[in-house]
Amino acid sequence: MNGNVIVGQSGGPTAVINSSLAGVFKTAKDRGANKVYGMCHGIKGLLDRKFIDLSDKLDSTMAIDLLKRTPSSYLGSCRYKLPEIKDSKETYDKIFQILNELEIKYFFYIGGNDSMDTIKKLSDYAIVSGSDIKFMGVPKTIDNDLAITDHTPGYGSAAKFIAATMKEIIRDGLVYDYPSVTVVEIMGRNAGWLTAAAALAKSDDCEGVDLIYLPEKPFDIDRFMVRVKDLAAKGKSLVIAVSEGIKVSDGRYVFELDNHVEMIDAFGHKQMSGTAKFLSNKIASELGLKSRAIELSTLQRCAAHMSSRTDITEAYNVGGAAVKAAFEGETGKVVVLKRVSDDPYMCITETGDVHKIANVEKKVPLEWITDDDYVTDELVHYIRPLIQAELSPIMIDGLPRHLKV
Ligand code: F6P
Q1: From the CA of 12, how far away is ligand 1's center (Å)?
Q2: Which percentage of the chain shows pLDDT scores above 70?
């Protein structure tokens, strides 16, 4: 191959997003790339000419091994929406000028559905401007809401953390001889895939969470309170999983029913927080039950010590597959995972058109959500293979070691 490579990370991080970075870097190098640059803070940083030569950092097998085990986005991230091409040709001219100065021929962007908007616009612009740079998306998001792909790298590790944490919270709830209610808030925005992973806690050593609320169905607060009251009346301590994105029937998010500070990102997403606190306060004040709110918040996306090895491996593979496809001439595509077998679980990589993935949110099918506020076995069966196996952290002085930024 001729020319250099550049790679960036964008959107919310995951525990395994750096495994995809490792996959891009190693595969590009093995296939003869000269320089592999990393954008600092994604396309936003590139516009400010902020990038590094990754060969200086990833100069040993140990560094690459540590990178795979390091959570959050090693290169830094951004939530930056490129303008429409027709509205700001100069932005695109600037980006392509920087890419040409660096002799870039292959551009990789590791991100979710918002970040794929960047690949869509840049690959479209390359066509109209006659550039031969290849643009390829590498999927990631804990939300698992990307279209076409069976699932997204990052989801399996977050799901594993959530299910394991739920088992521990359920155990903690059994400790006293009177009922209490713990409401656990889980990320995922408008898709309930992550919250559904709470169902995996149920096993022969754990009775599982009591109620699960996904954003795909309107949330009925009165009905919720009745369900909590009835279950608690049996003398049982309850653990309830709620998605950060549940909404009441008039379209307001539950967290908006309480005092909150409105923060909106470049893609128009509200920062979601406070759903569990609101519900827990309501339970305590109206039902007189001891109640706690736990917001898993960023813990669920940076818990590299609880990663799924299946997830780490797939994250690495999608990075490698993106390089292979781009080096073979593909552009304007995103690598997707296709499940070819459930037992034994097996996924292969393919590429999908970025226009069908950018800005599209894939939701949990309604038939996988039950009327008694839980999820079906089919959904559990879909998630379970994704949390399998572990990759031990490299422990130094009693703590997991990460690659220093
Ligand atoms: O998109 C991934 C995600 O972790 C969502 O689940 C969450 O709502 C959002 O990012 C939070 O974004 P930020 O870290 O930018 O506040």
Answers
A1: 5
A2: 100
CB distance 341 to ligand 1 below 6 Å: no
Enumerate residues 6+ apart whose C-beta is below 8 A from 196. Answer: 212, 214, 364, 368, 375, 379, 380, 383
pLDDT 10s digits, 373-388 = 999 999 999 999 999 9
Which of 152, 162, 189 has most ligand 1 atoms within 8 Å of its beta carbon, as the pocket-test mutant? Answer: 189
End-to-end Cα separation, the chain, in angstroms: 29
**Contact between 118 and 10 (Cβ < 8 Å):** yes
Residue 70 in tokens: 């390091």
The verdict on the CB of residue 272 being under 6 Å from ligand 1 is: yes
CA of 132 to the centre of ligand 1 (A): 33
Q: Does the Cβ of 140 fall within 6 Å of ligand 1? A: no
Common-topology check for domains 4-141+304-359+390-400 and 155-300:
yes
Q: Which tokens hold the place of 301? A: 């996306």
Active site residue 342: no
User: Domain boundaries in the chain?
Assistant: 4-141+304-359+390-400, 155-300
Residues 6+ apart with CB under 8 A from 94: 47
Alpha carbons 187 and 310: distance in angstroms, whole number: 21
Q: Is the pLDDT of residue 1 over 90?
A: no
For ligand 1, atom 2: residue with the closest CA: 12
Specify the pLDDT at position 288.
Answer: 97
Q: Considering only the top CATH level, what class is 155-300?
A: alpha beta
d(CA 255, CA 271): 10
The 10 Å Cβ neighbour count of residue 295 is: 19
User: Is the CB of residue 17 less than 8 Å from the CB of residue 140?
Assistant: yes
Closest ligand 1 atom to the C-alpha of 114? 1
DSSP state, residue 82 = P
| CATH class given for the domain over 4-141+304-359+390-400 | alpha beta
- CA–centroid distance, 329 to ligand 1, in Å, is 33
Q: What tens digit of pLDDT does each residue of 11-43 get?
A: 999 999 999 999 999 999 999 999 999 999 999
Residue nearest to atom 14 of ligand 1 (CA): 12
Residue type, 107: F
Tell me the per-residue pLDDT of 91-131, one tens digit each, with 9 for 90 and over: 999 999 999 999 999 999 999 999 999 999 999 999 999 99
Of 34, 9, 17, give the one whose Cα is nearest residue 327: 34
Atom of ligand 1 nearest to the CA of 189: 8
